[in-house]
Specification:
alpha+beta; Heat Shock Protein 90; 5-stranded mixed beta sheet; 5 strands; globular
Length: 200
């Protein structure tokens, strides 16, 4: 029970962190709108539009990745679309794209969480690629710019049983490891050619 509570706390902290910035921007735009200052009306509209789109995409993703199992998780096309939309919210100046080439599997939730983890190490734009072999599902972070080695090291530490700093940042990886352990599946990291998570 204690383990479940701890993971829930980490997930809540991480989700709150990922939403609060755009919620704040939305609230500030509403305040400016109430001031009826026409000089900022275009900027206000743009802020409201961007913030609402980001919040919608992230909440849809979080509901599927962390919520109760639902029919949407069984449809790989829905999983792809929701994951793609989520990744596009991460860095508007340096977009993170998705290239998901798998068929429906019982591990669609795990794939979503792994995509979230892989995106963490992309600093200045790139692609999260998902492919599969007979032995494993492979989720890779690909970028022309250097990947975040400190985050890769933190994830390796976690999978080796250690505790990285700022553990709530790695809530998706904790949860991913737990659901795979429950299914008697294995999660490993491959850094020989960049960064990949392997579900086997």
């Amino acid at each position: 029970m204690e383990d479940k509570i701890n993971i829930s706390e980490l997930i809540c902290t991480r989700i709150s962190h990922d939403l609060i910035g755009n919620i704040g921007a939305f609230a500030n735009a509403v305040e400016l709108l109430e001031d009826e200052d026409d000089d900022f009306i275009d900027e206000i509209k743009n802020t409201l539009k961007t913030s609402s789109e980001v919040l919608t995409a992230r909440l849809k993703f979080f509901r599927m990745a962390f919520g109760l199992t639902n029919a949407n998780l069984e449809n790989i096309e829905t999983v792809k679309k929701v994951t793609e939309d989520y990744l596009q919210t991460l860095n508007l100046n340096h977009p993170v794209k998705a290239d998901i080439k798998i068929i429906n599997s019982p591990f669609n939730r795990a794939v979503m969480l792994a995509c979230m983890c892989a995106a963490e190490v992309i600093v200045r734009g790139g692609t999260v690629k998902v492919s599969s072999t007979r032995q494993a599902i492979i989720i890779s972070a690909v970028s022309d710019s250097p990947l975040a080695q400190n985050k890769i090291s933190a994830m390796q530490t976690m999978l080796e049983g250690g505790t990285p700093e700022n553990i709530s940042q790695y809530a998706p990886l904790y949860y991913l490891q737990k659901i795979l352990n429950d299914e008697e599946r294995k999660l490993t990291i491959d850094v020989l050619s960049g960064f990949s998570l392997l579900i086997s």
